Amino acid sequence: ADLFDLGLKVACVADIRADGQNPDLMLALAERKIPLLKGWVATRARGGKAVEKVTLATVEGTVKREFDCDLLVASAGLTPVNGPFILAGATMRYDSLTGYFLPTDLPEKMFAAGRMTGLNDPVSIEASGRLAGLNAADATGAGMGAAVADAQKNFPLCPAPSAAASWSPRRSRAGKASSALTRTPRSRTSNRPLPWGSTCPS
């Protein structure tokens, strides 16, 4: 939508996700009559020194379309800093709802919180950080089991964006892109339980 407002002709927007798009952004595309292809990706760009044509396909690769264009814009969106998990050997899984790679199995004494679990709401992130901190303290032998249980019991439901992940953390092994095709001019917020099943104050 921003590129359109700057004067570029946008042929379409392809989003690898089948759903979970930001409603406001979808409305902005609709108002500008920019086609949105859900569940599509760019598979090939053609041209010499400049892009001349791009091939888009469904994620399954069963349907393909070609667009004439001289610019291909790609975005990975917001991505959690999950490098420490990967280096530690955590098992990561792509979550199609958030578009993030999220941990599904964590190494011993490693606990995830915040955006690394797919959360975006500040209250949810703070609550997840508190619980992860209590779990980490308990894992060092600080005897925080009661505090962990109390935190899990007393948090109410936290708000989360409609594109939040349904991620379920595991304590430890021992114990988850869009493209815009353009031609340059020549002149759901919802509520859901937190991953650990606790809630936040309203």
Write the layout of secondary structure elements.
Blueprint: H1 2-5, E1 9-15, H2 23-31, E2 36-38, E3 40-47, E4 51-58, E5 64-68, E6 71-75, H3 83-88, E7 91-95, E8 100-105, H4 122-139, H5 145-154, E9 158-160, E10 178-183, E11 190-192
Parallel strand pairs: 1-2
Antiparallel strand pairs: 1-10, 3-4, 4-5, 6-10, 7-8, 9-11
Helix pairs in contact: 4-5
Task: Write a concise synopsis of the structure shown.
The protein is built from 5 helices and 11 strands.
Tally of alpha and pi helices? 5
Largest β-sheet summary: 4 strands, mixed
End-to-end C-alpha gap = 34 Å
Task: Please estimate the helix content.
Answer: 10-25%
Order of helices and strands: HEHEEEEEHEEHHEEE
Task: Give the overall shape, derived from the CA principal axes.
Answer: elongated
- Write down the Rg: 21 Å
Low-confidence stretches: 164-179, 182-199
Strand order of the largest sheet: 2-1-10-6
Strand percent estimate: 25-35%
Oligomer: single chain
The averaged pLDDT comes out at 78
Which secondary-structure class do the elements indicate?
alpha+beta
The number of strands is 11
